[in-house]
Specification:
The protein has 101 residues and is mainly alpha-helical. It has a domain at 5-43. Helices cover 32% and strands 4% of the residues. The protein is built from three helices and two strands. It has helices at 5-14, 22-38, 76-80, and strands at residues 86-87, 90-91. The protein has a two-stranded antiparallel sheet. The longest helix is centred in the first third of the chain and has 17 residues, at 22-38. The N and C termini lie far apart (61 Å). InterPro entries: Asp/Glu-ADT_sf_sub_c, GatC.
């Protein structure tokens, strides 16, 4: 299945990538090489194998509960100790939106 320059142009437009002239030709060759590398996979006849859409299968949550650890927790005073500015147990930082209070 070879990709035409029109196919590559459509993919580039969808990805909002501007390709012109030699770039389009080069990308067409590159993508056709990439597709050709996947051809051996099609040689396998695996009708009874379900596709794997996620590498960890049915594992749903690998994160621990988000609970404070009293032994390792940093106190508010220690956390704000070297802050340039603090107010109401929070760090104060300059506004990035240009609005000043």
């Amino acid at each position: 299945m070879a990709l035409s320059e029109d196919d590559v142009r459509g993919i580039a437009d969808y990805a909002r990538i501007a390709l012109e002239g030699d770039e389009l030709t080069e990308m067409c060759a590159y993508l056709n090489d990439a597709v050709a590398m996947l051809e051996p996979v099609l040689a396998y006849n695996l009708p009874d194998i379900d596709p794997t859409f996620h590498p960890i299968g049915s594992l749903s949550n690998v994160m621990r509960d988000d609970t404070p650890d009293a032994e390792r927790a940093l106190g508010i005073e220690a956390a704000l100790g070297n802050a340039g500015s603090a107010r109401d147990r929070s760090f104060r930082v300059p506004s990035i939106l240009g609005e000043e209070e």
